[in-house]
Amino acid sequence: MPNSTNSNGIFWYSFDYGNVHTTVLSSEHDLSPGSIQYQWTEDDFKAVDRTVTPWLIVEMHRPLYESQIKLEDVPVGISRRFELDDLLKDHKVDLVLSGHYHAYLRTCDGLYNSRCNSGGPMHITIGSAGAELLMVDSYDNQWTDKLIRGEFGYGRVSVANASALLFEFVKAGPVNDTTAGDVHDQVWITRER
Question: Would you list the DSSP string of 2-28?
Fold first, then answer.
């Protein structure tokens, strides 16, 4: 794993790739304000020079926002929102990528405090790369823009420039699947949102 300043090795760390700064967090460790990981995350965000790396992406296993009904997981997502929503908004994080749920979900842009267009990042759950797919019901909310269940796939990020980034959900499948490789969802994220 990248050895970033004061990181915890494989559990939380960050790295730059081109004009993207990626911060990887552990959703399985304490993320509450005042915790070691929270303080490291805040320091990491503060150290990002947005003129050099204008894009800030966070990756973690468990999503903050999910609409599938897995009652045992709902409290975890809600607690992570209370812990991280303000930090993500304050530091203008652009995109949060997570997994855990074996399906694809994309939220509205600017998601903060369960409201769209409120200054937070877009959240994408992309947990459909290989494990058994999840086919549970979902509950209504205002922030789910796209939900794809029962389809294997992966995410592809293409950074056009300092103000536009394309995220695509690409369908995967066996060799004889003629739709494998098709883009089944895409969204442009702009820094002027």
Answer: ---TT--TTSSEEEEETTEEEEE--TT
